[in-house]
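Quick note —
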Amino acid sequence: MKYLIILLISISLFSCKEEVKDKTSSKKLTAQEIIDKAIEISCQGKCDNAVIEFTFRDIKYISSRNGGFYKLERIKMDSLDEIHDIVSNKGLMRFVNKMQVTVPDSLADGISDGVNSVHYFAQLPYGLNDAAVNKKLIGEDEIKGNDYYEIEVTFTEEGGGTDFDDSFLYWINKETFTLDYLAYKYATNGGGVRFREAYNPRVVEEIRFVDYNNFKPENKEVELSELDQLFTDGKLKLLSKIETENVKIILPKD
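Predicted structure written out below.
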């Protein structure tokens, strides 16, 4: 009987160790799982079918999505004319004072990229599950006392736009799964590196929005993974503030 009790205790202790091990291993999330959770927290399942309107630097932006269909708009005044650009699954269309005009091929990519870029940053992390996005968990770090996952993002050439070779790094809070910091390296106009700190978080119709402090390092050859430490050490220069204003959301009726 004594040996039976010892055996049962040993089995019980072994089982407890196995449960702890399984519980620990389940916390090791993949890059895909981290991004999925970040989008879930930010969008609450609303982004796929929402109409999102906002103003950035006195220019109006509107995005409409319905399943696989999307339409990204930019409406601005140029001198006395209203210029309305629309990027969708069908390509680029431009209207001047509500009349459609032909866009030269030499300008089309630049216009489309300009529209896409503002919508992309304003609605992060939504968009990080697009087919052209490659995600990799490259490490974990601490910024201002909070722990973060570091997710590297690159793009495939097919579907990745004209700037597909740009690279990004996202710091996602391990506790809240909010995207609090990001950095990117770009090649256009001589190239450069930027680091952004999110602030002013707010929720509109259950969708989370933030503004950004936009920084740059002294050396544009610095690795993106070094920027969080440079930020912590106060060695980045504040260039601008990226502020999304007058946010309005229209959700489909049930």
